[in-house]
Amino acid sequence: MLNSRIFALSLIAAAAFAAPAQAGVLDNVQIKVGVSGVIPDESADITVIGGDVDISDEYVPTLAIEYFFNDNVSAELLCCAAQHDVKAVGTALGTVDLGQITHFPPTVTLKYRWTNLGAFQPYVGAGVNYTHFFNEELPAGGTVTSISYDDSFGGALQAGADFKLNDHWSLNADVRKIWISTDVTIMAGATRIDANVDVNPWVTSLGVGYRF
User: Which domains, ranges and CATH numbers included, belong to the chain?
Assistant: First the structure.
């Protein structure tokens, strides 16, 4: 439900982005909607109790807005939000349920695409990510009484391809590696536990695009 609301807000943002871009600017814009798998490649350094972290894989709707500087070079913004189940595993206390956390990780990449292969247009990209963590939900009756996650800046790499159906519509397949690291503060009663958590997800996407 939360992902659906954020996706709807992203569509509104896309419309707001496009509205002032009349007089030919939209000719350089492509919008893609699809589904992405957010697959964390997680690890953690946890004080006091030791152990590691386990973060669930999730599949969410996504929106991407791409602006073409020319036929080969473009910039793309990917928007999505995912809610993950989080556990500390292998600790001195065994497995500790840390509840759920939602993160919003808009990612901007500068892309280069090859256009000499007909309808098939592969590309690579690199860029930056900003991740905001919010909506922490702790399990009822657990030992953890509060938890907070710091926001993150990191790099991103991308590879994929568009398959053009005509001048406007295309199909898309894409994979990104995004580096997300957050400092987490956990309170278990009066005991403070600090953790540095690397989420570092792979984001694999399938979608459909429309170029104006």
Answer: 2-203 (2.40.160.20)
User: How do residues 29-38 score in pLDDT, each as one tens digit?
Assistant: 999 999 999 9
- One-letter amino acid identity for 82? A
Strands (E), 23-93: 29-39, 43-46, 52-55, 58-68, 73-79, 82-91
pLDDT given at position 24:
67
Looking at residue 19, the DSSP 8-state letter turns out to be T
Yes or no: say if 133 and 149 are a contact pair by the CB < 8 Å rule.
yes
Question: Which residues have CB under 8 Å from 192's CB, separation 6+?
Answer: 48, 185, 186
Joined tokens for residue 124: 């690579």
114 contacts: CB under 8 Å, gap ≥ 6: 72, 121, 122, 123
* Alpha-helical segments (H) within the chain: 2-18
Question: What single-letter DSSP state applies at residue 200?
Answer: -
Confidence of residue 63 (pLDDT cuts 50, 70, 90): very high
Q: C-alpha 114: how far from its chain's center?
A: 25
Q: Which SS3 state, helix, strand or coil, does residue 26 take?
A: helix
Q: Quote the CA–CA distance of 182 and 133 in Å, as a whole number.
A: 9
Pick from 176, 197, 212, 210: which is nearest to 79 by CA? 176
Tokens of 205: 């996407």
Q: How far is CA 165 from CA 189, 210, 211, in A?
A: 58, 10, 11
